[in-house]
Write a structure and sequence with these properties.
This protein is an alpha+beta fold and 165 residues long. It is 36% helix and 27% strand. The protein has a four-stranded mixed sheet. Helix 2 packs parallel to helix 4 (143-158). The chain is elongated. It starts with a helix and ends in a 7-residue tail after the last helix. 19% of the residues are buried.
Length: 165
Amino acid sequence: MMRSLLLLLLCLVVIPEARADAALSVRFVAPERYTDAGNRYGSGPTLQATLGEIERILRDLGRRGLAANEALRIEVLDIDLAGQMLPSPGTGQFVRVVSDVTPPRFRLRYGLTQGGRTVLSAEEAVSDLTFLMRARPGQGAFVYERDLLRSWFEARIVRRQPPPA
């Protein structure tokens, strides 16, 4: 009896999460040509690590923000991480320097369906020149990218605001 109850509770926790993941499709289109997503200078995350983290961020947003009858398809066409890689004097290493003129940028193509009917479809460049004003230090890697994607998801997918013309 106790075993059946535990199995039922496990299904209630795992099945909704699996359904939310199934409702979100993320595809990276030609990532080797992205503006700035990989480790070109021997420091920083690899391309695979960056793509894995961006996918995780998008899946978390989907889990929290998609209704049961919604499905979202996202194609990531380009990534330009916040900041730029600059040589660190005397070390032979490069460091990522973030300033207000180097915001994160994504180019996304996406489509949202609700009950099998397309309710939103667009391709858009996503960026925010005021990203440093919202920054909260100490949140780990990809903090600016996470914040930008969260804002985009809330505006486009949750509130259904159309992209700027």
